[in-house]
Amino acid sequence: MYNNFPTKQALLIALLEQLTAELEMTGSELLTSDLDTSEAVIRVYLNIATQPEYLMIYRILCGEHYKLDELTRNQVLSFDQGLHQRCLEALQSGGITRPEWILMFCRDQIISQALKALPDAELPGAGELLVRLEGLLSEG
User: Fold this and answer.
1) How far apart are CA 85 and CA 88, in angstroms?
2) How far apart are CA 34 and CA 11, in angstroms?
3) Would you kindly state where each structural domain of the chain is located, as residue ranges?
4) What's the rounded Cα separation, in Å, for the pair 41 and 39?
């Protein structure tokens, strides 16, 4: 497969484009489903955290971004920023107060935990995360 690309960076950019398109489709399906908007956003982030290829992008974003050329770094950043923007818009259109809190919760309780977890460790389910989120929101 590598032989089809002139450089490793070109291969990585093509992979990032494909993963971004897949995430947009999956995320869109969840965000427009009949689920509560907060739960849908949590499920989008859980989807990322349970897919090694999506989690790899966050590993690059957190620890390897400085090694990338500008084009590739921007592609990695756009993966995260696009996700953030789509979820923010869904939360705002759903009338959710404090949507940024929900997104910070998802990054901390889902993405960060998945990055720290051992390979076979299980993340909490959407229901448990929703209960935690509601507890935090009621305190704030």
Assistant:
1) 5
2) 37
3) 2-139
4) 5
At 62, list the tokens: 């957190």
Q: Give the global pTM.
A: 0.88
Are the CB atoms for 101 and 136 separated by under 8 Å? yes
The mean of the pLDDT values for the chain is 90
The four Cα atoms 82, 22, 76, 71 give a dihedral, to 10 degrees, of -100
Helix pair angle (8-31, 52-59), 10° resolution = 120
> Dihedral sign, CA of 140, 124, 81, 69?
positive
The position carrying tokens 């620890």 is 63
User: What pLDDT, in 10s, does the model give residues 93-115?
Assistant: 999 989 999 999 999 999 999 99
> Three-class SS string for 53-80?
HHHHHHHHHHHHHHHCCHHHHHHHHHHH
pLDDT tens, position by position, 16-42: 899 989 989 999 999 999 999 999 999
Rounded to whole angstroms, how far apart are CA atoms 17 and 11? 10
Task: Name the burial class of residue 18, with classes exposed (0-12), middle (13-18) and buried (19+) by CB atoms within 10 angstroms of its CB.
Answer: exposed
Output the CATH code of domain 2-139: 1.10.357.10
